[in-house]
């Protein structure tokens, strides 16, 4: 990098490791931060310290929060008998942004994968089965990726939960999507799941 | 964002303000950092604290370092009588990466701009004139952008330095550049500055 000082080079190297950043954008970010030292650099350092000290996985669902049991699991309002199963915390956040799901979550931490030797014990599947016994669950909604691994995981989970209503997200044309740009699989799924209007 | 905890949302909001990052990549970065807490999150927070506490502009040239006079200005080896004038610190770093310039720098902090009401006093131009009187300067190399504002600034500086050799970077075809993709201006400049081989 050759910026002349070790502290700066160290900061650039660390920032460049973030997903979505490289050496060039890390250098730009560092210069930007130094120009806005009191408004951005110091608050950012403090926010990182705080998150580093407090962030932890919820013991119940696997969401990331600052307490042993996350806000969602802790809220009585969300105990509506629905558990939405997602692959990771980013998916949970995406669901929360849509503000459409009112129940609780369960973060698997990945998908089953024979190639990567990921079995049910590596994921949070046993914990899910425990929760369904202990919480008053009426429906498990599988919000997993429409990939081979995601669908394998969905089928495995459905097999483990006899007697429970297990649903999965609908497949079809995305809102705003143009048919011309959609792949064959999506069009097939959307046609098969067509409904009368 | 709705991640469920204020600390996390605060960190995401701050990260999303960095150039090159937005809310989506900031969320990805935060999840990545939490997974690599001891290897990346904590060191990054500490590196930011250190830079926030120590980074300052060199009183002589405007480079960013951790001392009042930067390493380059402080090095006797770089006192070869050449001063390279650049617009900002990012340009200085770019010059240093090429490792071809052995002299000292002068960071203007911007370019003259009538539209943005940036005059010579807003830049570090008076300080440059002082330096040329006090240091033993034989050549001033203007490494400014090939834009209207950059070239205006270059001409203004050249006018302020009678009796000093003032040069500017050559214009021409970039290394690896294909003629087909070059603009007319660059081809014109390269043709006018052609040389025998």
From TrEMBL, chains A, B:
Keywords associated with the record: DNA damage, DNA recombination, DNA repair, Metal-binding, Zinc, Zinc-finger
ZnF (C4-type) intervals: 58-73
One annotated GO biological process: DNA recombination
InterPro entries (alphabetical): DNA_Rcmb_RecR, Rcmb_RecR, TOPRIM_dom, TOPRIM_RecR
Residue ranges of domain Toprim in the record: 81-174
PROSITE patterns with a match to the protein in the record: TOPRIM
Recorded superkingdom: Bacteria
Statement: the UniProt record of this protein carries the keyword DNA repair: yes
Matching SUPFAM superfamilies: Recombination protein RecR
Pfam families, per database record: RecR_C, RecR_HhH, Toprim_4
Molecular function GO terms recorded: DNA binding; zinc ion binding
The UniProt record lists the keyword Secreted: no
Stored NCBIfam families: recR
PANTHER family: RECOMBINATION PROTEIN RECR
UniProt-listed HAMAP family: RecR
Main function: May play a role in DNA repair. It seems to be involved in an RecBC-independent recombinational process of DNA repair. It may act with RecF and RecO.
Family in the record: Belongs to the RecR family.
UniProt name for this protein: Recombination protein RecR
Organism: Yoonia ponticola
């Amino acid at each position: 990098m050759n910026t002349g000082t070790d502290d700066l080079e160290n900061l650039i190297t660390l920032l460049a490791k973030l997903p979505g950043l490289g050496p060039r954008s890390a250098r730009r970010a560092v210069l930007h931060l130094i120009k806005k030292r009191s408004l951005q650099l110091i608050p950012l350092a403090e926010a990182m310290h705080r998150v580093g000290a407090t962030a932890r996985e919820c013991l119940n669902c696997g969401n990331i929060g600052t307490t042993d049991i996350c806000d969602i699991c802790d809220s009585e309002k969300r105990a509506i008998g629905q558990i939405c199963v997602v692959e990771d915390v980013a998916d949970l956040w995406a669901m929360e942004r849509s503000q459409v799901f009112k129940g609780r979550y369960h973060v698997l931490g990945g998908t089953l994968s024979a190639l990567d030797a990921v079995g049910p014990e590596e994921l949070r599947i046993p914990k899910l089965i425990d929760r369904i016994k202990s919480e008053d669950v009426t429906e498990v909604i599988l919000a997993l990726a429409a990939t081979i691994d995601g669908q394998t995981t969905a089928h495995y989970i459905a097999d483990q939960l006899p007697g429970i209503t297990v649903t999965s997200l609908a497949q079809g044309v995305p809102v705003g999507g143009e048919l011309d740009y959609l792949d064959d699989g999506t069009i097939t799924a959307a046609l098969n799941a067509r409904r009368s209007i």
